[in-house]
Amino acid sequence: MILVRQATTLILLVVGATTVVNGQNTQYAPDEVTDFCFVSGSAAAFANNKAYIYGGWSKFTGFTNYTGPNNYLRTIDFSKSFLTSSDVSTYVSRSQLPDNIPRNTYTTLWPFAKDKLGIFFGFHESSRAAVALKSPTVTTIRPVDARVAYDTQSNQWSVDTVKSTSGLAMLAAGKDKDGAILKVGSKMSAWIPSLNRGYYLAGLTYKDAPTLPWDGGRDMGDHHGLLIYDANQDSIRNETQPFANGREGGLIHITTATDQLLLFFGGFSEAQRASPQRVRSMREFWIYSTKQSKWFSYISPDTAVVPDPRANFCTVVKEAPDGSSWQVFIYGGGSGQELFPTDTVWVLSIPSFDWIKLPGNATDSTRTAGKRWDPACVNVGKRYMLSWGGRHYAGAKDDLSCDLNGNNVFLMDLTSGMWVDKFDVDAGEYQVPQPVVAAIGGTVNGSATKMQPDGGFDDPAVKALMQFNVKKSPTSSPDSVSGGSNTNSTSAIPAPTSNNTVAIAGGVVGGIAGLAIIAGLLWFYLRRKKAAINKPDNEFQGYAEAPGDLRYAKYELPQGEGHVYPPPVYHPVTEVPEHTENERPGELQIWNERYEMPVDSDQDHYAGGIAEIEGTNRR
Q1: Where is composition skewed (Low complexity) in this entry (predicted)?
Q2: The sheet that has 36-40: what strands, in order across it?
Q3: What is the pLDDT of residues 501-535, one digit of tens each?
Q4: Which class for 511: exposed (0-12), middle (13-18), buried (19 or more C-beta within 10 A)?
Q5: 238, 176, 233: which is closest to 208 by C-alpha?
Q6: What domain range includes position 613?
Q7: Is residue 454 part of a domain?
């Protein structure tokens, strides 16, 4: 069996070496610079004022049947301003990965140690046609507890394994008769700096061996675990998840008054072998308390406005300046029943759980990121989101558009909610976007007044989790936007359900005091004028202008009375048609046995009415 697979792979390589494109013989592997089309499923991190981009899988112009790994580490320096519309080679640096470093998709870049980024888990991109079989990138298979480290100061790479593991049934299984080992790949991961831990949720298990290409033999199955890497202990452990399945959704981290929470939403909800596939409603959330090691659930009311079900999007998270709320930005992916590629940008505000759609337009129409599947996104600078790569679609899912010359770098100003050309290193701090302020109240600097969803939290335990320590008000004007492109009014706006009694009472008292001050000034002015009748005319040419910080500013409320939600729209769980071709994670057609990872019995507890997972379902 092994010989047959090796022979088959060798034949494919030979065939690839004599591929005919446009009537001409070409090399078996394309030039990764001149033939670049797109890279999808990469990992991105921001450290030391630089963005680092690793991994993913590539397509190339003129090579319709070729899929290869991303063989470069890319870095972008954000210590100075630049235009993304400039020649990409002037601000994106590329360095070739060493041969012994694996190429992975849906992996991590966790800052597990000083000046080091850690690559854990992911789909190993062996690629049947990318390199010769003798290459270490293909023949060296790393186990599930492997760690690839990159030193951002010395630019050196290293590979080792963590010190200890628990609950990793994949690791205990060893190799099968064909020499393949079990590994796991998932789009959903998060790093919590205060805990020095990384979390890698659900996804798919697969077989990894030198002779297994993507289009067969991987035995994809559903992974039902939360893998936790503890950098302080240098260990990996597994905890079982309470929901049935999870793939290609979003996993983010927020800090509350008493806990560090993970929030999971979106993505596929059916087993990978199931047909048809279903996409989880964007009103469904799973919340993980790292303090309690427990999962909780929350579902928004049917009347809430939410995005269409979505998968394969990217996420970034920002905290309001005063800590009263968090904003989760999602961009791209596939949306709706048919999972059509989308370019929409939505914001989920926590703790109100309001979804708000941002304009998503651009200050320069050429710098709109467009419809992208599996882009890599990361916070950069003080207020920007970097979007890099992803499959770019001009229209429908079969209308793929290449990013010629690597033109796949885009920036969104999260304060204005607009795509911009320029990264401005001097741009001000992040402020809550105006559409979000209209929904949750307060100002662009925080002071949110809507601190729970419409109708409240049904589960007291979830309500207890959603408590936040509000910081001291920023020293800057609470009603100013620093450097943003949004020219709308920035006055403080109450939430739709807020009570303004205190504000009204304060206004009455202030008005009375103001009248008294005006009367005193008028009396003072008349006395001075009478005494100065015989003085030169130029002594009283009018009142001097008050200092800028004492002037009254004119603010205008948005049109309409407060925040008006669109008509309620209910988006039920949708079905995705079966795929007719072999594609990458999230669209794979290989249905096979699933692997579940056992955990210790003291971890089998879940809150919020979630039933325990029976031990008989594990292996």
Answers
A1: 482-491
A2: 36-40, 57-60, 63-69
A3: 334 344 444 544 555 555 555 554 444 443 433 33
A4: exposed
A5: 176
A6: 2-434+576-617
A7: no
